UniProtKB/TrEMBL annotation:
Organism phylogeny: Bacteria, Bacillati, Bacillota, Clostridia, Eubacteriales
Protein name, entry field: [Ribosomal protein bS18]-alanine N-acetyltransferase
InterPro entries reported in the protein's UniProt record: AcTrfase_RimI/Ard1 (IPR006464), Acyl_CoA_acyltransferase (IPR016181), GNAT_dom (IPR000182), MshD_Acetyltransferase (IPR050276)
Source organism of this protein record: Acetobacterium fimetarium
Keyword Cytoplasm: yes
EC numbers for this chain: 2.3.1.266
PROSITE patterns attached to this UniProt entry: GNAT
Length: 147
């Protein structure tokens, strides 16, 4: 299985949207991905296998911080290092853009994601009450230093 990792192009939006639909309950729209890929402050990395997008991750550049928007991998391709490689690529891109840290919000009940981010040097530094609605809080996690 050969998987390539590269920056997202506008024509990748349908594939990224398909992964989003497979991964998340509160999905973005196709238009939001089409807009984001054209935004000079957004960076997305895609994982591609046999011409199909099977995973992606994105962040917004906010001054000298990279704010992760989403990282998702199609269910049948999880737990084999694809998410890790996507995050590694995102860290490299963010570092090249001069970011000093990376942050995100994660559902307080998404234990797998919390463990993944902690393994990658992210720490919980706050809580956003009811961030996901229905009383579900979001942990604010940070990784200071990207090198």
């Amino acid at each position: 299985m050969t998987i390539s990792y590269r920056l997202m192009k506008p024509q990748d939006a349908p594939g990224v949207f398909r992964v989003d639909q497979d991964c998340f309950k509160h999905n973005w729209t196709m238009e939001s991905y089409q807009d984001d890929v054209r935004n000079m402050l957004s960076s997305y990395v895609v994982a591609e296998k046999d011409g199909e997008i099977i995973g992606f991750g994105g962040f917004w550049l906010i001054i000298d911080e990279a704010h992760i928007t989403n990282i998702g991998v199609m269910e049948e391709h999880r737990y084999c290092g694809i998410g890790q490689q996507i995050l590694d690529e995102m860290l490299t891109v963010a570092n090249h853009k001069g970011c000093l840290g990376m942050t995100l919000e994660v559902r307080e009940d998404n234990y797998a994601a919390i463990k993944f981010y902690e393994k990658n040097g992210f720490v919980k530094e706050g809580v956003r009450k009811n961030y996901y609605g229905n009383g579900v809080n979001g942990f604010i996690m940070w990784r200071h230093g990207l090198g």
